[in-house]
Amino acid sequence: MPGEFILETEGLTKEFKGFVAVNNVDLKVRRGHIHALIGPNGAGKTTFFNLLTKFLPPTRGTITYNGVDITHEKPAQTARRGIVRSFQISAVFPHMTVLENVRGALQRGLGTSFHFWKPEQSLVHLHARAQELLAAVDLQDFAEELTVNLPYGRKRALELATTMALEPELMLLDEPTQGMGHEDVHRVTELIKKVSAGRTILMVEHNMNVVSSIADRITVLQRGAIIADGPYAEVSANPLVIEAYMGTADAALQGAH
């Protein structure tokens, strides 16, 4: 039986020449939850994601996924386990159609992504699944549109579809609503809720409205360390969290220099 927690870190630490970016983080992500990682700029959230996806090796500490220690695995090994990251900057091919982007992601899942010489017809069997994924993120009407022509919020929806094409068990979403207007934020928030069915999501997010509306649990980082962890009502009332976001007068003054 799979355990209650899909992902656990213990004492996870990353130092860069004396600067501690991630400091002794013990995190538990419950299977099937939407878990938000929040904190002020420079809190270590992106570095923490880079440790989880093996873009950076930890200085010390362990990462356990589905009960297996994956701390020293290579990025590709970790990705094959079902941990898939969606990037802060839209990671889709602008001069391919929306459908081609999703189909390309499905090919990666099959391990046939380098078969560029194969005829178009050989991809037909992926067509139905690609259409399903587009429908899941409300892009069915944009299938033949060149991706470069999509509005920003729709590009992020496409990125969700291409991430789902890799059949992730754990989706890491890095600032999924960054740079969006109110309408797009609402749409993408609803999509995240929709695609979370049957999988676990760990997301870095700045928008508190998003976090409060969809996160089951929230972990707050400041200067690389956890200062609070729990449901939104509890975390948002925590004096340490309020201070981290609002800042004391001294912190505000230091920030001005």
Would you write up a description of this structure?
This protein is 37% helix and 25% strand. With 257 residues, it is of the alpha/beta class. The chain folds into 2 domains: 172 residues, Rossmann fold; 75 residues, no CATH class. The strands form 2 sheets. A 6-stranded mixed beta sheet has the order 6-7-8-3-9-10, with helices on both faces. It has a 4-stranded antiparallel beta sheet with strand order 2-1-4-5, with helices on one face. Strand 1 and strand 2 form a beta hairpin. The N and C termini lie far apart (53 Å).
Strand content: 15-25%
CATH architecture of the largest domain: 3-Layer(aba) Sandwich
| H/E element order | EEEHEEHEHHHEHEHEEHHH
Strands across the major sheet, in which order? 6-7-8-3-9-10
Radius of gyration: 19 Å
Structural class: alpha/beta
Main pleated sheet: 6 strands, mixed
Helix content: 25-40%
Which superfamily, in CATH terms, is the homologous superfamily of the largest domain? P-loop containing nucleotide triphosphate hydrolases
Poorly predicted spans: 248-257
What's the N-to-C terminus distance? Answer: 53 Å
* Arithmetic mean pLDDT: 88
CATH class of the largest domain: Alpha Beta
CATH topology of the largest domain: Rossmann fold
CA-based shape: globular
| Count of β-strands | 10
Query: What is the number of domains?
Result: 2
- Please count the helical segments: 10
Quick tags:
single chain, 257 residues, 4-stranded antiparallel beta sheet, 10 helices, 37% helix
Q: Topology, please?
A:
Elements: E1 5-16, E2 19-30, E3 34-38, H1 45-52, E4 60-65, E5 68-69, H2 75-80, E6 83-86, H3 98-110, H4 124-136, H5 152-165, E7 170-174, H6 182-195, E8 200-204, H7 208-214, E9 217-222, E10 225-230, H8 232-236, H9 239-246, H10 249-256
Parallel strand pairs: 3-8, 3-9, 6-7, 7-8
Antiparallel strand pairs: 1-2, 1-4, 4-5, 9-10
Helix pairs in contact: 3-4, 3-5, 4-5, 5-6
